[in-house]
Amino acid sequence: MSATPVPHGSPAAPPRRWRAGRVIVLVLGLLVLLAGLGLLAGGGALLWADQSKRTDDGYLFSPGTRLSSPGYALVSDRIDLAAGAGWVPVSEALGTARLRASGGGQDLFVGIAPADQASAYLGGVQRTVVDELGTAPAATGQVEMPGTAPTGRPGARTFWVEQATGAGPQQVDWVPANGIWTVVVMNADGSAGVDADLRGGATVPALTGIAWGLLALGALVTLVGVLVVAPALRRRNPGRRQLRLGRPVPAPAGPPPSPR
Predict the structure, then answer these.
(1) CA 224 to chain CA centroid, nearest Å
(2) Measured CA distances, 9 to 13, 248, 249, 250, 251 (Å)
(3) Buried b vs exposed e over 178-210: b needs ≥16 C-beta within 10 Å?
(4) What pLDDT was estimated at residue 121?
(5) Which regions in the chain score pLDDT beneath 50?
(6) Is residue 103 within 8 Å of 196, Cβ to Cβ?
(7) 3-state class of 223 per DSSP?
(8) Cα distances (Å, whole numbers) of residue 206 to 50, 201, 222
(9) Distance (Å) of CA 155 to CA 119, 126, 144, 215
(10) Is the entire prediction scored with pTM above 0.70?
(11) Distance between CA 221 and CA 135 in Å, rounded?
């Protein structure tokens, strides 16, 4: 009669099912991880623009666009910088804004004014209201407003906070302030048929800090996501744990060996 050989090594542990709590932790960890990666991507894009897209004098410009109006003016939608005026440093965040305009042969006028005073001057004038004047998508957001001719040349008015007029390309620099503003582009003589290439930009001194802040926050959130996901994905073998603790591993259940 021969003895039955004893198998060496620990028996394989039965596969453990994923419990609901483990699945929830894993899903939450993945969401945190994705949010962190998104913050890293956003911060990296802003830092790239800040370092590589500035002009020699420190401006970041949007792509230019060609706009025209059969009326007497190209008018921006109302630019509201009044929200949070008590604590948002608008001028520090945006820096100095710049609008460049070049016409199609006629002398141009470019001006920035408080919205109520610009509206009083142009309220009954045939004009084109442009959403996001000076940016590339502006060509898709135009509304034609009926009316008549303006009373007098735009440059003769005194309510403009910044203005430029003359032949060739015109440029206005403006330090944004709290309030509601309007940008107006007209022919210098106030005639109908305004045609101009427009491009807007700003120095945005806060962009560097915003970019690095997003990168730091993204790195922190990504680390938290990794620390949550990694333990949820780790599979534990109870047999190995018992061997490390010096405990006997129970033999698998089954019929005893028959003697020979």
Answers:
(1) 23
(2) 12, 12, 10, 12, 11
(3) beebbbbbbbbebebebbbebbbbbbbeebeeb
(4) 93
(5) 84-88, 243
(6) yes
(7) helix
(8) 10, 14, 24
(9) 16, 18, 23, 46
(10) no
(11) 33
What are the residues facing 195 on neighbouring strands? 68
Q: At CB < 8 A and 24+ separation, what contacts does 3-7 make?
A: 4/257
**pLDDT on residue 66:** 85
Beta strands in 41-89, from DSSP E residues, in sequence order: 60-61, 65-69, 74-76, 79-80
**Which residues neighbour 151 within 8 Å (Cβ) at sequence distance 6 or greater?**
none
Helix-strand-coil split of the chain, %, nearest 5: 35, 25, 40
What token pair was written down for 209?
A: 């800090």
Tokens of 199: 């491009």
What are 171's two structure tokens? 């440029």
The class that CATH gives domain 59-202 is mainly beta
Q: Which residues contact 126 (CB under 8 A, 6 or more apart)?
A: 70, 71, 72, 145, 146, 147, 148, 149, 192
**What pLDDT does 88 receive?**
46
The amino acid occupying position 213 is: G
Residue 71's nearest CA partner among 184, 169, 197 is 184
Tell me the pLDDT tens digit for each residue of 93-110. 678 888 998 877 789 999
Beta pairing class for 97-103 and 194-202? antiparallel
- Write the DSSP assignment of 98-111 as a string of letters: EEEEEESSS-EEEE
Q: Which of 114, 101, 117 is nearest to 164 (CA)?
A: 101
Please give the backbone phi and psi of residue 249, each rounded to the nearest 5 degrees, phi first.
-90, 125
